[in-house]
C-alpha cells in the first residue's frame, strides 16, 4: 500500500491549495518543501517586489505633488524603513504554510528536497516514499548567464537584491524582462542611478510596440539609461564595484549588477527521467489538464508546468482548480489560457490579455484594432495621469481576441477585459456596459463603441450616436399617436 495518496513537491500557492483540498477530502497528503521553513513561499518574492514598487510610486507622487497645488519638501528615502515595509508585506501576505497549520489541515510536511526514484516513488531525507499520485509544484529559479569574471563580484538576483541593507549607488540591470523593468523603475524612483542593459534589440520585445514605446519613454523620464541591443560578454572588477563589458567592447561600471533575464523551471534536482516524466526546456510537459504526458500518475502546477499550446506560466493562478477537478474528481477539464492576463506594474502600468495583434495574425485572423486614449478620459484627466490607451484586438465578426492597456490602473482594468474574452462575450456587451462616471474603465467601453459594428457608435461627448437606419426608423415612428 502506498505511503501517501498524494505527494506534492513544492509549497507554492498551487501546491498548498491542492494539498489543502486533498486533505479536506480525507486523502493522505505529504508536502515536500526543501526550504528550512515552508513559510518561505515563492510568492513572497512577488509580494516583496509589489511592496517595493508601491514605495517607489509613492515617492514619485510626492515629488510631483506640485501639479495638484501641494507643496512638499525634498523626498527622503529611509532604506531601513523601506526594507521593514517589504518584510511586513511578505509576512502578511504569506499563506499559512507553517508545519502546525499544515498539520491542522491533515497535511504531513516533510522539510527536505525530494527527487524521483521511480514512476511512483520519491526519495527525501534518505527515505523512499511511495505514492498513488503526485503534483510537481517546485517553481522556478532566476536565469543566470555563464559570463567570464562573475566570481567574487557583486552581482544579484531578485531575491538578494531585495535584501540589500543599503541602496545601490548605481544599479546595472541586465535584461529587458517585465521584472527587470519593474525593478529598474523602482530603484530609480527611490533615488538610485539605474542603467538598463537589454541584450535584445527592443525592451519588452514581446509586447505591443504601441504600448511598450511610451513605457520606454516614461522610464527614461525617471532617469533610467536604457541600452538596447547590448549583449554583455564579460564582467570585471571596477573601482565602483564591477563593470559589464559589452560585446562591442564598451564598458559600463556600476556598484551592483542585477540579473533579470527571466526564470527557468527547477528541473535538475527532481530526476524526472527516473520517474518517466518528460520535460522540455520550459518545464514538465503536460496536457491542458496539467497531467504529465508520459506518467499518468503525475500532474504539474505553477510556472514549472509546460501545458501543450500555452505559454509557460500562463493562467498559473487557475492551476490548482484544474488539478482539483482533473486529479481529485477525474472530471474532464482543460486549462484555458486564452484570457490569461499579464501585467507590468510600472508607471504607467502595462497589461495584456489574450492575443496581441501579431499573435492574432499568426493564428490566421485578420484583426481590427480599436483604440481609446486615456487623454480623453475624465477620471484620468482629474488624476493628472492621461498617458496611455486601451487597445482592443477584434476579429471580423466582432469577437474580442485580445486587449492591451497602458496607463494607471491597467492591471485592474485587465480583469474586465479578461472576463469578456474568457466568457466569449460579444463586443456589444462591453459597448453597452454601464459604469460609474468618471471611471478609467470608460476608456474600454468607448473603445468598443468605436467599432464600426457597434449598433450605437460613440459621440465626441461620450454618448452613443444612432446610425442612419435607426434615425430613419425613429422618423417613421414619431408619426404614430
UniProtKB/TrEMBL annotation:
Cofactor remark from the record: Binds 1 FAD per subunit.
Binding site for FAD: 303
Molecular functions (GO terms): flavin adenine dinucleotide binding; NAD(P)H dehydrogenase (quinone) activity
Gene3D superfamilies (UniProt xref): 3.30.390.30, FAD/NAD(P)-binding domain
InterPro entries tied to this protein: FAD/NAD-bd_sf, FAD/NAD-binding_dom, FAD/NAD-linked_Rdtase_dimer_sf, Pyr_nuc-diS_OxRdtase, Pyr_nucl-diS_OxRdtase_dimer
The keyword Repeat belongs to this UniProt entry's keyword annotation: no
Residue ranges of domain Pyridine nucleotide-disulphide oxidoreductase dimerisation in the record: 341-447
Similarity comment: family membership: Belongs to the class-I pyridine nucleotide-disulfide oxidoreductase family.
Annotated protein name in UniProt: Dihydrolipoamide dehydrogenase
